[in-house]
Amino acid sequence: MLQRGDDFSIRLSGTRGELMNSRMYNSEQALATLGCTHLKSTVDAQVLVGGLGMGFTLAAALKVVPQSAKVTVAELIPAVVEWNRGALGECAGQPLLDGRVLVHTGDVLDLFNKNKPIFDAVLLDVDNGPAGLTHSANNRLYALSGLKTIYNSLRTDGMLAIWSATPDDTFLRTLKKAGFKVTAQTVRARVKKGSRHTIFLAKKP
Questions:
Q1: Domain ranges of the chain
Q2: Residues 87-99: tens digit of each pLDDT
Q3: Structure pTM?
Q4: Which of 27, 40, 109, 135 is buried deepest, with most CB atoms within 10 A?
Q5: Could you tell me if 164 and 152 are in contact, meaning their C-beta atoms sit under 8 angstroms apart?
Q6: For residue 30, what are the CA distances in angstroms to 46, 111, 115, 187?
């Protein structure tokens, strides 16, 4: 993680590529807003956020869901959790301090139950999209078998929302094969400007 004043940047070790920047978070917020809108009046809603990042998705989800909701955030890298508990957390308003939040430091795959529907919404931003760039094991999450496990972990009318740096027609077809009703929306990295990102919205009918 790099810091310059109030700006933060997280980069992938061994590359020059920037994974996230605290000035560009509109699409991360859209991931939560689009994925959780149906839960505004749902009592005791259960939400899973895969990937803490800089906390923007988590913070946006907390603004949408009711006070009775529980939001579990899974982050594979312990350092990211610690950064968010420190200065980095100020960027998104310290969402980890919200009493509705549970933190799982580990693989988001560990939290799915293929035999029991437990979540009303699952928001995934664990990589650059449906391919394992930062962690090759993420490929299991986006494969048909992984998507079917997520499908079975969602309650009826539950929503799976996935952030991606680029569109992916092949992945759309895989989501449909898993049983989802699927749409995709293009969202800017910053409000009305910046890179175009894709939010896959997959509803369990």
A1: 24-203
A2: 888 989 999 999 9
A3: 0.87
A4: 27
A5: no
A6: 19, 23, 30, 7
